[in-house]
Amino acid sequence: MLIDKLFVYGLLKKGYPNYSLVEPYIITEVDAYTIGCLYKLTKTNQPAYVKDGNYKIYGKLYYLLNTKKLFSILDYVEQGLERELTSVYVKGEEYIAWIYVYKLDLKDAILLENGVWE
Q1: Helix/strand/coil for 82
Q2: Which end of the chain has the smaller Cβ count within 10 Å, N or C?
Q3: Which residues of 14-30 are buried (b: 16+ CB within 10 A; e: fewer)?
Q4: What's the pTM value of the predicted model, to 2 decimals?
């Protein structure tokens, strides 16, 4: 099954450093959220999403083309993260999309209870 959607919550969003990597592959994007916990890593000032938790995490759902090529790039860039499938919600509808999940130590990380990376 081809999953051609990616949920982004941090540095892959428009206006952030890694957006240029994904921009050429975006067909469209919509506001969306998923469930989990979002942290700010204090040592690197980067976001970290984990599936454990019940907070709404706000971001964008990208509809993509040429996902095989894009994910070969992003999987390399997003080291320390694993790409997994998750449920994403747009206007009450549930979609399945890829998301990058943080798998390393959360020591000294700050929980962003509002679910927004800025």
Answers
A1: strand
A2: N
A3: eeeebeeebeebbeebe
A4: 0.95
For residues 6 and 100, give the distance between their C-alpha atoms in angstroms, rounded to a whole number. Answer: 9
Please spell the DSSP secondary structure of 27-50, one letter per residue: EEEEEEEEEEEEEEETTTTEEEEE
Alpha helix stretches (DSSP H) within 1-118:
19-22, 67-77
CA distances to 27, 30, 94 from 1, rounded to whole Å, are 19, 22, 17
Token pair for residue 36? Answer: 């989990």
Indicate the SS3 state at residue 111: strand
What tokens does 118 get?
Answer: 């800025």
Over the Cα atoms of the chain, what is R_g?
Answer: 13
Which tens digits make up the pLDDT trace of 36-67? 999 999 999 999 999 999 999 999 999 999 99
How many residues comprise the chain?
118
